[in-house]
TrEMBL record:
Protein name per its UniProtKB record: Nucleoside diphosphate-linked moiety X motif 6
The keyword DNA repair appears for this protein: no
Keywords in alphabetical order: Cytoplasm, Hydrolase, Mitochondrion, Nucleus
Listed GO MF terms: ADP-ribose diphosphatase activity; NAD binding; NADH pyrophosphatase activity
Subunit structure: Monomer and homodimer.
EC top class named in words: hydrolase
InterPro entries noted in UniProt: NUDIX_hydrolase-like_dom_sf (IPR015797), Nudix_hydrolase6-like (IPR003293), NUDIX_hydrolase_CS (IPR020084), NUDIX_hydrolase_dom (IPR000086), Pre-Nudix (IPR040618)
GO cellular component terms, semicolon-separated: mitochondrion; nucleus
EC number: 3.6.1.-
Subcellular localization, as worded in the UniProt entry: Cytoplasm; Nucleus; Mitochondrion
Amino acid sequence: MAGRAIVSAPWSTLALVRRRFSAHVTVPPRAGPSGVSCSQLHTQVCCRALTGQVDRFGGVTVNLAEVGLPADISEKTFSTLLKDSLAQWKADQKVAVWLQIPISLSRCAAAASDHGFMFHHAKRDYSVLALWLGAGESRLPPFATHQIGVAGAVVDESTGKVLVVQDKNKTKNAWKFPGGLSDLGENIGVTAVREVFEETGVRSEFRSLLSIRQQHNHPGAFGMSDMYLICRLSPLTHQINFCHQECVSCEWLALRELATTSSTTPITSRIAKLLLYGLEQGFDKIDLTMEELPAVYSGMFYQLYHQQLPTTLK
């Protein structure tokens, strides 16, 4: 299986916790020839407010790993610094503050909690706390709540067969399309191609998106929600060399057989019938093709999946 992928809530301030920013806190060196003591150093730190990156919604993101705090800063000293910073942010009418705290400064989380900050999420080596400063109830988005699974239906149009596997360590050895969890930052077509190769040894290329399944309270997603997407792929190679750690069997199976056999899952059977229809009537009847478009605010690009438009409407 690949690593987990997540879908975050639809407010882009959340994405800002991953951005780097230019902080303006200046911290003098530790005690040495200059004669600056540790307590004097902490006093000088508290004379300046933390400054982070402001997002387009009026929120501020501060990464404590980048602002030059002393490695041994105390909770009390940081609390004073944060208090002064909050006063400045409120005066500037900022609506929210995100604090990214490295694990080495975890004690700062306790100090932040005294000022109303709450945990938002955590990764391997940092946690993120958030505080709503705007009017009314908090409108900050929750953290990621989904994982993304992607399968690849590799269809050989010349034979009418599709590549299927039977997973290892399952209570039922049902035929299904090879697939797994999408890595962070990985497009679904790339996931499908990668997972197919890792499980079966067959190389393929992305053609279209076929379906999306949504499921909640998924036991395999820590009780969160799960999105499962199936893509149509075309084979570049045909020789099978499947992964014995993940699969007990792998075959090129006739679509018509897969659509009618009881040795499969309901979703695989349904997609097999869809693919059979596409094979007979044209895949343009079932495909959701991908088009890359520029994002309005970030200047980056995203992938949009939809039925092909007539040439006159493009």
